Amino acid sequence: MDKITIRADQGETRIDRHIYGHFAEHLGRCVYDGFWVGEESSIPNTRGIRRDIVEALRKLRIPNLRWPGGCFADEYHWMDGIGPRAERPTMVNTHWGGVTENNHFGTHEFMDLCAQLECEPYICGNVGSGTVREMQQWVEYLTCAEKSPISDLRAANGRSEPWRLSFWGVGNESWGCGGNMRPEYYADEYRRYATYCRNFGDNRLFKIACGPNSRDYRWTETLMERIPASQMHGLSLHHYSLAGSWAAKGSATEFTEGEWFRLLQQAWFMDELVQKHSEIMDRHDPEKKVALVVDEWGAWHDVEPGTNPGFLYQQNTLRDALVAGITLNIFNNHCDRVRMACIAQTVNVLQAMILTQGERMILTPSYHVFEMYQVHQDALMLPVEVACENYGHQAESIPSLSVSASRSDDGTVHLSICNAHPKDDMTVAVDLSGMSPQVMRGRILTASQINAHNTFDNMKQVKPVELAATKFAEGVAHLELPGKSVAVFEIS
Fold it and tell me: Which of 66, 147, 365, 488 could cross-link 462 (Cys pair, CB 3.0–4.6 Å)?
């Protein structure tokens, strides 16, 4: 029998709520025709921001939102997105579809969105095509309360008081679309740009450096060697899970068991990435002052047939829910170093929480995983030991079970479990040491088919359902966990 042992009396580190962050780039229909519909739209909105999306994301207790990119960040010039909307210059989004944007969604609109979401803004500044002065002035525009030409400009645009802003990214993917830099060159550029990202008044920036692309360990080594922790509070990491290759990623909804396995294997690879990058960081930063910020992660498939290939619009199935659950369990278990993350992306792009079609909106299976897992936010991570058979396909295998656990301030223990096997149910013994549990109650997300997904004609095909309560006997409870499922339990 498979077994999970939870050490309820051994937790030391809290799971930072910012692990459950999101990413919204100017890409496809994420911002325009996603969050932003404009004040004249017939779709219910608040100052141009779509109301039903805000309401749905608030139910996730979304902690942060990263913007404006992504690759877009290093071609975005923030002054084009302020002032009267009718007077803002247009721009061509050369990275994503070559479409012309009107810059109606800019700094004020983004900060308004974050206020409506009750989340913290995470802004990524332009290093690739921008200047030090441009980035310095953006920080000043946002956070300076003292009188200056830049704060006067903000006041003239309708905002006399500064905003509170913590998270600041200094460039994006500088090893690629953000400038094709060498790590040594970027490290020097980071030090220069970060110097001029000032703390105004009592506002304190949490500065995040562009970190490695997946397994580029040399990039991490170089930045940790060359940038002092006093200048770098976070180091980003990007990793996407693919069932195929970058040239042929495969369909989001039509796939074989082999493609199911390969995608979940890529999700599990995040554990190795986090461990190896953390080992490098530990050598240079044993006190763990610098956070590992996984600010782009998720499943990447081929776009839906008939859609703009530059818009990255893809469906979202039960398979993607497993990617989300496995990855979040990994982050929870490594919360001593991973203290922030952002899934890509929030609306209508890649592994989205929400898909829209005109006035209609659907919640994806990935949305439901985030809703179920929110109980871990800011809770104390509890060590878990998992003994289970592997799920094998051909000559390779991954663990059948992915698990994390936490204890909230009121003493309630939460356990999240993913069964990665697409067919086999599992009987799992849950042993809780360090407390005297009575019962566990939970919800589960599963479906009859591995490619089950919600559509605009069937919006609730994949949604969580309640499980019957399971009682403990001598500290052990036995669960019947269906294949291809994500479950979260409350133990009391």
Answer: 365
Answer whether 87's CB lies under 8 Å from 76's CB: no
Q: Are 58 and 117 in contact (CB under 8 A)?
A: yes
Secondary structure class of 288 (helix, strand, coil) = coil
List the one residue out of 400, 396, 294 whose CA is nearest residue 339: 294
Amino acid at 416: S
| Burial bucket for residue 7 (CB in 10 Å: 0-12, 13-18, 19+) | middle
Burial class (CB in 10 A: 0-12, 13-18, 19+), 17: buried
Where b means 16+ CB within 10 Å and e means fewer, 125-143 reads bbbbebebebbbbbbbbbb
Sign of the torsion angle spanned by Cα atoms 227, 229, 232, 235: positive
Phi, psi of 396 (to 5 degrees): -120, 165
Q: What residues does 298 pair with on adjacent strands?
A: 240
- Cα gap 95→422, rounded to integer Å: 36
pLDDT at 1: 76
Residue of 173, 189, 259, 371 with catalytic role = 173
**Catalytic hit among 25, 109, 189, 296:** 296
Q: Up-side HSE of residue 364: CA atoms within 13 Å toward CB?
A: 31
Helices (H), ranges, 20-156: 51-58, 107-117, 132-143, 149-156
In Å, what is the CA distance from 365 to each residue of 452, 453, 461, 480? 9, 7, 9, 21
> If you write DSSP's letter for every residue of 75-108 in order, what string do you get?
G--GGGGSS-GGGSPPEEETTTTTEEE---S-HH
Q: What integer pLDDT is reported at residue 212 of this predicted model?
A: 98
pLDDT > 90: what percent of the chain? 97
- 296 an active-site residue? yes
For the chain, the residue count is 492
pLDDT digits (tens, 9 = 90+) for 349-361: 999 999 999 999 9
Token pair 């590992």 is found at 292
Question: What is the DSSP secondary structure assignment for residue 162, as one 8-state letter?
Answer: P
Digit-coded pLDDT (tens) for 325-337: 999 999 999 999 9
Q: Is 257 helix (H, G, I), strand (E, B) or coil?
A: helix
Residues 6+ apart with CB under 8 A from 395: none
Q: 255 — alpha (psi -120 to 50), left (phi > 0) or beta?
A: beta
Task: In whole angstroms, give the CA distance from residue 236 to residue 212.
Answer: 7
**Annotated catalytic residue 257:** no
Give the pairing type, strands 167-170 and 91-93.
unpaired
